[in-house]
Specification:
Elements (H helix, E strand, L loop, with lengths): L5 E2 L4 H22 L25 E2 L8 E2 L7 E5 H7 L14 E2 L13 E2 L2 E2 L11 E5 L2 E2 L13 E8 L3 H4 L6 E7 L7 E10 L10 E13 L3 E12 L3 E3 L4 E3 L2 E14 L2 E14 L4 E2 L18 E17 L2 E19 L9 E20 L3 E21 L7 E21 L4 E23 L25 E21 L2 E12 L10 H8 L11 E13 L5 E23 L3 E26 L2 E17 L11 H4 L9 E13 L2 E12 L2 E2 L7 E2 L2 E11 L5 E8 L11 E3 L20 E5 L5 E9 L1
Parallel strand pairs: 8-11
Antiparallel strand pairs: 1-31, 2-3, 4-10, 5-6, 6-7, 8-9, 10-11, 12-13, 12-40, 13-14, 14-17, 15-16, 17-18, 18-20, 19-39, 20-21, 21-22, 22-23, 23-24, 24-25, 25-26, 26-27, 27-28, 28-29, 29-30, 30-31, 31-32, 32-33, 33-36, 34-35, 36-37, 37-40, 38-39
Length: about 775
C-alpha cells in the first residue's frame, strides 16, 4: 500500500469569497424585516388564540447555561423542535428529522437495524463497526450514547430535539466534530394528564409491496405528592409486518416488533430537584432488506435474498439528574447508565443464492457523569464542569462463505475511558457586543483486544473464547490477533464574538474539535494489516482526527416574530481524516480497513427561514450548499496503486453538495373543530458513499404531508399522514461486494448507474401512508 502524499493548496480567494457571500445575506435580512405580512398588522398579544402560536419561540438546552435560551438568541447554528413541532412532523425516530434541516443526514446504515450513520455538514462515517466513534454525538436527557448501535429506533413522548451543527467539543467533548443531536424526553408534570395514540400505516397501491405497520402508545403523568413528588409512566408497542417484498420467495420482509417501557420520578426538595428516568427497550425482526445493484436497478425497490436475516436488541437506559440552586448559580449533575445487547444476521451478498452471510453479537455497557456549575448575570454567562465516561464494548463477527475452508470468526473487545474538564462563557463588553470563549481538556484511553476475522474454530469475543495471541490453527502462517492500549490528550478551544440589536444578531467563531483514534474490530487480512502496523512508524491503532471550524452567521427576526431568518457560512478544515475504506474481496466478501486517509477542506453555507404570513399560515424554507476538496492525500483511496491527482479529484464521502426544502403549516377553524395541515418537501443531492466513489447514494426528493382534524370532542384528534410520498429509493449504504448479476457492465466508474460486480445496499422504506388517532386529557 502506498502512503506517499499528494497535496493541493486551498486558494485564499475561496475563503475570502465565502465571507463576502455570507455578509451579502445580511442586507436581505434587513429588507425582510420591513416586510409587513398579515400577522404583523396587529400586535401578537391581540391576535386570537391559534394552535400555530406553539410553533414560535423555542428554547434550547445545548448551551448549558443556567437557564434555557431562546433559539434565536444563541450564537450557534442550531435547528430545534419543541413537542408541538415534533407532533406536527409526526416524528417517530431521529431519522425522520433528516428532511427538516439543511446539511443534515440522520440516516441509519441498514446493516444492523437501528445503527446510526449520521452526517452533518459533510462530517460522517460509513460503518457499522462498533469501535468507530461517531462524528455526530447523540445525547438523550443529557447522557452521551457511546456508540452508534441502538440510536435510530422508535421514539415517543419527546419534549424537544436540538440539532447543533458544527464541532461542539467544548461543552460536549470529543467525538462530536460534526455536531450534536440532543433528545429530551418528557418530564413528569404538576397536573394529572395523559396522552394515548394508535396508528396504522404502510405501502399504498404500490404493487402489493409489503404489509401494515401498527403502533400504540400511552403516557400518564402527574403528582404523587403535590408540588413535591411527580411521576410519569409510558409504554409503546409497534408491530411492523414488513414493508418490502422479497422476490426470492414472494414474502414480506423488514418485519419488526418493538416494545418500550418508560418511567420517571421527579422530587422537588426546596432548592434541590432530582429527576430519575428509566427506559427499557426490546426489538426483534428481520435482517437488512438489501439490494444488490449488480442485479437490480438502483431506482427500484426490487431485491431477492435467500436468507431473511434477523436482529434482536435489548437496551436498558437510565439517568439521574440533580439540580441545586446554590449561590448565584445552579449546580447540575447528570449520571447516566446504558446496557445494550444485540445479535444480528444478514444476507450480505444480497442475492438469492448463498455466497456471503454474516452474523454478529454485540454487548455494550456504559456509565457517565457530568458535574457542572452555571452562573448567569447581566454581564456574563459562565459554565464550568467536569465529565467522566467509561464504556466496555465486545463484538463478535461470524462470516459464512461457502468457498472458505470454514466460517470466519473474530472481532474485538475494548475498554474506553474519558476524562474531561471544561469552561465556557459569554462576556458582555457592551449592551450589544460580547465575547465568547471556551476550552475543554480531554483524556481518552482505549484498551483493546482484537481477534482477526479469519477462518478459525468457532469462538465468541463476548465469552472470551476468541484468541488474541498465538497463531491461527487453521492458517498457521498468520497470528490470531493482538492486544494494545492507546491514550489521546487534547485541548479543544473556542473563541468568538456576538453583536446583537433589537431582535437580531450576528456572530463569528472559531472552534477546534477532535475525534478519537482507535482500533478496527473487523480486520480480515491479518498479514497485510500487520505488515503496516509493525513497520517502522506503524501502529495497531488509527490516529485521531482534528477539525477546525471557522464560522460566521446571523439570526434575524422582526419585532412581532412573524419572520425569522438564520444564515451561517463556514470553512471546516479536517486533519488526519479517519475513513473506513471499503473494498470488495473474493476471499472475505468485503475488506473494511480504517486509515487516516487525507487532509481536506469543506466550505459551506446554510439558511433557514420561517414566515408567518397570517394567523393561520406558516411557511418554512431552508437551503444548504457544500463544497468539498482534498488538500493532501495520505492513503491510496482510489485503489489504483499510486497517490496522485486521481485521488485528489475524488469527492469526499457523505457530502451532498445541495440540500434544500420548503414547507407550510396551515390552520383552518371549523364549526366542528379545526384542521391542521402540514406539507414539507426536502431535496438532498447525491453523494459518494465509498472513498473511491464507486459506491454512492443517489439524490432524493422527499415529500411528506399530514392533515389533522382536532375534533369537537375535547382532547381527541384524527390524522392522515404520508411519508416519502414520491416513493423515492433511499439506502443506508452502497458497499461494494464481488458478487453481481446480469446488469454488471464490467466498468466501475465513479457514480456509475450499475456497479462492476455488485453492492450490499440496505433499502429504506418508500411511500408510506397512515392514519392516527390521538386522545389527550
Amino acid at each position: 500500500m502506498n502512503f506517499r502524499t499528494a497535496t493541493r493548496r486551498t486558494p485564499l480567494v475561496a475563503k475570502a469569497a465565502l465571507l463576502l457571500c455570507s455578509s451579502a445575506a445580511f442586507p436581505f435580512a434587513a429588507h425582510a424585516q420591513d416586510t409587513d405580512p398579515d400577522a404583523g398588522d396587529q400586535p401578537a398579544e391581540e391576535r386570537r388564540a391559534s394552535a400555530l402560536d406553539s410553533f414560535g419561540d423555542i428554547v434550547v438546552t445545548g448551551t448549558k447555561t443556567q437557564d434555557p435560551e431562546n433559539v434565536q438568541d444563541v450564537p450557534l447554528a442550531v435547528t430545534a423542535f419543541n413537542a408541538d413541532t415534533l407532533e406536527a412532523l409526526k416524528v417517530r425516530d431521529v431519522q425522520g428529522l433528516t428532511y427538516s434541516a439543511p446539511n443534515v443526514s440522520l440516516d441509519q446504515i441498514g446493516t444492523s437495524r437501528g445503527t446510526a450513520n449520521f452526517s452533518i455538514r459533510g462530517l460522517g462515517i460509513n460503518s457499522s463497526i462498533p469501535s468507530i466513534d461517531p462524528t455526530v454525538g447523540v445525547f438523550v436527557d443529557g447522557v452521551y450514547l457511546g456508540f452508534n448501535g441502538g440510536v435510530v429506533f422508535d421514539l415517543f413522548d419527546l419534549d424537544s430535539v436540538e440539532i447543533l451543527r458544527g464541532p461542539q467539543g467544548v461543552l460536549f467533548g470529543r467525538n462530536v466534530t460534526g455536531g450534536a443531536v440532543l433528545i429530551n424526553t418528557g418530564n413528569p408534570t404538576e397536573d394529572f394528564r395523559g396522552k394515548f395514540r394508535a396508528a396504522v400505516d404502510g405501502p399504498l397501491l404500490d404493487g402489493g409491496r409489503g404489509g401494515a405497520n401498527y403502533t400504540v402508545s400511552g403516557v400518564v403523568s402527574g403528582p404523587i405528592v403535590e408540588d413535591t413528588l411527580l411521576f410519569k409512566l409510558g409504554a409503546y408497542y409497534n408491530n411492523d409486518e414488513g414493508y418490502f417484498r422479497n422476490l426470492f420467495d414472494d414474502s414480506n420482509h423488514g418485519a419488526a416488533e418493538t416494545l418500550i417501557l418508560r418511567g420517571a420520578l421527579e422530587a422537588r426538595l426546596g432548592d434541590l430537584t432530582l429527576t430519575g428516568k428509566l427506559d427499557y427497550f426490546e426489538s426483534e425482526g428481520d435482517g437488512p432488506s438489501a439490494q444488490n445493484r449488480g442485479t437490480f436497478d438502483r431506482d427500484s425497490f426490487d431485491f431477492a435474498i435467500d436468507f431473511p436475516g434477523f436482529y434482536d436488541n435489548t437496551i436498558w437506559t437510565g439517568s439521574l439528574t440533580a439540580e441545586l440552586d446554590i449561590g448565584p448559580g445552579t449546580l447540575t449533575n447528570i449520571f447516566g447508565y446504558r446496557d445494550y445487547e444485540a445479535v444480528t444476521g444478514g444476507d450480505i451478498d444480497a442475492l438469492p443464492v448463498f455466497i456471503f452471510h454474516s452474523d454478529t453479537e454485540t454487548a455494550q455497557d456504559q456509565i457517565s457523569n457530568e458535574l457542572r456549575y452555571a452562573v448567569s448575570t447581566d454581564t456574563f454567562d459562565l459554565t464550568v464542569g467536569g465529565f467522566y465516561f467509561d464504556q466496555s464494548i465486545a463484538y463478535t463477527e461470524i462470516r459464512n462463505i461457502p468457498s472458505a475452508p470454514t466460517s470466519f470468526f473474530g472481532g474485538g473487545a475494548q475498554d474506553h475511558e474519558v476524562l474531561g474538564a471544561f469552561a465556557a462563557g459569554q462576556f458582555n463588553l457592551t449592551d450589544s457586543f460580547s465575547v465568547i470563549a471556551g476550552i475543554r481538556w480531554s483524556q481518552e484511553t482505549k484498551d483493546a483486544a482484537v481477534t482477526y476475522v479469519r477462518p478459525r474454530p468457532p469462538c465468541s469475543v463476548l465469552d472470551g473464547t476468541c484468541p488474541v495471541s498465538g497463531t491461527n490453527p487453521i492458517i498457521p502462517t498468520e497470528n490470531n490477533g493482538f492486544t494494545d492500549r492507546v491514550r489521546f490528550t487534547n485541548w479543544s478551544p473556542k473563541l468568538g464574538v456576538q453583536y446583537e440589536w433589537n431582535d437580531s444578531q450576528v456572530y463569528a467563531h472559531w472552534t477546534r474539535g477532535f475525534r478519537s483514534g482507535g482500533y478496527n474490530f473487523r480486520i480480515t487480512n491479518a498479514n497485510a494489516f500487520e505488515a503496516i502496523a509493525l513497520a517502522p512508524g506503524g501502529s495497531f491503532n488509527f490516529d485521531e482526527e482534528q477539525v477546525d471550524n471557522y464560522e460566521i452567521g446571523g439570526k434575524f427576526q422582526t419585532a412581532d416574530g412573524s419572520l425569522t431568518l438564520n444564515v451561517a457560512a463556514y470553512i471546516t478544515e479536517i486533519g488526519n481524516m479517519q475513513r473506513e475504506v471499503n473494498q470488495a474481496s473474493l476471499t472475505s466478501g468485503v475488506a473494511q480497513s480504517i486509515f487516516n486517509t487525507a487532509n481536506a477542506t469543506i466550505t459551506g453555507f446554510e439558511a433557514e427561514a420561517r414566515v408567518r404570513l397570517s394567523d393561520s399560515l406558516i411557511v418554512t424554507a431552508n437551503i444548504g450548499l457544500i463544497d468539498d476538496e482534498y488538500d493532501e492525500i495520505l492513503f491510496d483511496i482510489s485503489g489504483d496503486g499510486v497517490i496522485n491527482d486521481t485521488d485528489l479529484d475524488l469527492r469526499l464521502p457523505r457530502v451532498p453538495e445541495v440540500t434544500w426544502g420548503v414547507g407550510f403549516i396551515h390552520e383552518a377553524l371549523l364549526d366542528n373543530g379545526e384542521i391542521l395541515t402540514r406539507v414539507n418537501y426536502q431535496y438532498r443531492d447525491e453523494f459518494a458513499y465509498t472513498d473511491n466513489n464507486f459506491g454512492f447514494v443517489q439524490d432524493i426528493s422527499n415529500l411528506e404531508a399530514n392533515v389533522t382534524w382536532v375534533t369537537p370532542i375535547e382532547g381527541f384528534s384524527l390524522s392522515v399522514y404520508g411519508r416519502n410520498l414520491l416513493d423515492e429509493v433511499q439506502v443506508g449504504g452502497d458497499t461494494q461486494v464481488p458478487f453481481g448479476g446480469p446488469l454488471s457492465n464490467g466498468v466501475n466508474r465513479p457514480f456509475d448507474q450499475f456497479p462492476a460486480a455488485g453492492t450490499f445496499s440496505p433499502l429504506s422504506k418508500g411511500r408510506n401512508v397512515g392514519v392516527e388517532a390521538t386522545f389527550e386529557f
